[in-house]
C-alpha cells in the first residue's frame, strides 16, 4: 500500500479509526493522509448576505488547526501523518473523490459519528462509500482498540473476484504475520457443489502458493448468524467481505445487504471491497 486515507468528523467515535490507520500505515510503510470535509456556511450557521473575502480562507485555517489538534491528541507528538481540510457540500462525494485523486489503497473511517454534520460516517453513508470509493473501505467500531492482526476472516463465495480480493489481502496479512481464514457459509442445497469448491481451492493454491490461507466451509440456512458465530469462535481481528451488485432473484441470500448488516453489527473491524474495482 502506498497511501492510506483516513476521514474524520472529529468525534470520539472516529478516534479508534485514526489509531488503526496509523498503526497499519506504520507496519505497511504507507503514507497516511487524514482529512476532514466541511461546508463552511453550515459550520458557521449563518447566511452570507454580503461578500466576506476571508471567510473561506479562515474556515480552512480553522479546520486545518482542529484536524491537526485532533490527530495530535490521539496519536501524540511526532506522529507521521499528513492533514488536509476539504470544503464540499457532500461529505461522501468529497471523500471518495479524494481517495481517487490520491490513488489511495485503503480508506479508513469510523463506523459511527457524533457530530451535527449533515452526513455522518455511519450506516448508509459508509455503505455508499463502499460503493463509490476506488479502494477498499475499512470501518472501525467506536469502541475498538488495535491489538495487531492475527486472524483475518474472509467470507468467500467461490468466485473469481474472491481470488482477486485475496490477492490484495495476502500482502497485508503477511506484513502482520496474520492467517487468513477463507470461509464459505453454504446452505444444504449448496453443500453438494463439490466441484466448485475444489476448483476454488486449487485456483487459490496456484495463485497464492505462499500465503497463509486456510479454507473452511460452514453449513447453515442462516448465513449471517453463522458467520457471526464463526468470527467469535475464531477470535477474528478483522472480517473482510466483497460487496456485489445484485444478480437477480437467484442470488444467494448470503449476499443480500451482508456488508450493511456487518457494519451495523459494529463489534469487529470490517474491510469491504467492491466488485466494481475488479472489473
UniProtKB/TrEMBL annotation:
It holds the Pfam family Usp. Residues 1-140, 150-251 form the UspA domain. Coiled coil: none annotated. InterPro entries: Universal_stress_UspA, UspA. This is Universal stress protein. CDD domains: USP-like. Gene3D superfamilies: 3.40.50.12370. Belongs to the universal stress protein A family.
